[in-house]
Each structure stands twice: as C-alpha cells, then as structure tokens.
Amino acid sequence: MAAKNLKNMCSSKLCKAALDFLEYLSAEGEDLVGVTGSLAYDPGNAEDIDLVAYGPRIERVYKALRDLRKDGITLPFRGRGHAWSDSDYYLNNVIASQRLLFGRYKGFEYNVRLVYCTKPARCTPIKVLGEAVIEADIVSSISFSTPAFYLMRIRKVLGTDVALPTRLEYIQMMTFRLRYMEIPTGSRVTVKGEIESLEGVLRIVPDHAGFVHILSPP
Question: What is d(CA 50, CA 109) in angstroms, rounded to the nearest whole number?
Fold first, then answer.
C-alpha cells in the first residue's frame, strides 16, 4: 500500500509512526516503498510496522536503516516474532544489535523487507532432493535482501537422506524468512533444510520445517 493511502485510512499513533518511518526511507531516493502486512489490509488494528521496498537501489534503504540505528532513532528488537521457535528467538538475541531489518521505532516493533525484483523473474526448474542437517561456517552473503543468500563452508553433514557429493566443500543457503537474514559472515551455524538443485547447483533452504541454529557468532 502507498503511504498516501495509509494516511487517508488511519490516524492512530502506530500509523503516524509508520508514515514517519516511510519518510525516512523514501528520502533515500527509493520510490517503491510502502506498507505491507496488517498495515496494508487492516491498519486500524495493526500492532507493528511492516514495510517493504523494491528496486535496484535498496542498498540506499539499508544504509538509511543503518544511519537511523547509529543515531539512536531505532532500537534493536529483542522480543519474539510470530511463529518463532526457541532457536529463532536465541538467534535473534545473539545478533539483535547488528540487525537492522528488525527493530523498534517510536516504541513500535518494525520489520522491513528489501526486494531487488520489480517484476517476475525467469522461471527455472528446481528439484527438491530431500533434507539435510549441516554444520557450516558462513563465508560470504547477501543477507539483507529477499531472498537472502549465504555461501557456507561445510564442516560436518550431521544427517541427510540425499546422496550429497563426497567432496562437497561449499553449499549455498537461501531463505525468504526475515528471521534468518542478517546473520553475520564468520558465524558458525547448524542448518536443517531441504536440499534443492537449481541447474545442477545445490542449496539448502531452511524455510519449510527447517531451522538455523547459531553456534558461534564471529
């Protein structure tokens, strides 16, 4: 939903805070910024601020979030998100001070989703091979966008029903869930997820009945 529509539909403290927050993010030259979640379909009863930004300049929005945190305008979120497990809660508490996509603004919980795409991507066949549990080190990432991608160096395969290559050293983790984004490079994690093959490249996806446990932050 566009900001002007929210202004016409709701005058609560939360809606006013959301509009202020949108102004901060839109000031970075990103036109495709709006509200989502309950703010989009039932703003009068919304309990948190859900925002989304689209386009090739979302790094500017992420920089704006960094500046807001540095200036103390937003604060870390240390609560429990919707449908989070105990391990999700623990993961967030370990890295909350570094997370910018979650936080608190004017006393309200917020989350921001950043998406590069502005139109549907090419459809590529994906094969789901099975499940695996892997202990790994994150060596690089694009962890603030949706989806987020991590390149991980495998330390141990703890369990699998997939015939993984015996000399597999690295695997990509992909996630659409905000709770698994912004995990710092250098962290050691245990990941349970589906093993997908995309044009012969393997990746693990924890989004469906999987998890990401952080063993040690960098």
Answer: 9
CA distance 24 to 38: 21
pLDDT in tens, 19-28: 889 888 887 6
Dist CA 142 CA 185 (whole Å)? 10
186, 196, 198, 201: which is closest to 153 by C-alpha?
A: 186
Q: Is the pTM of this model over 0.85?
A: yes
- Whole-angstrom Cα distance, residue 185 to residue 98? 12
Q: Cα–Cα distance between 216 and 7 in angstroms, integer?
A: 44
* Selection from 158, 151, 125 nearest residue 137 by Cα: 151
Closest to 171 measured CA to CA, from 197, 145, 146, 208: 197
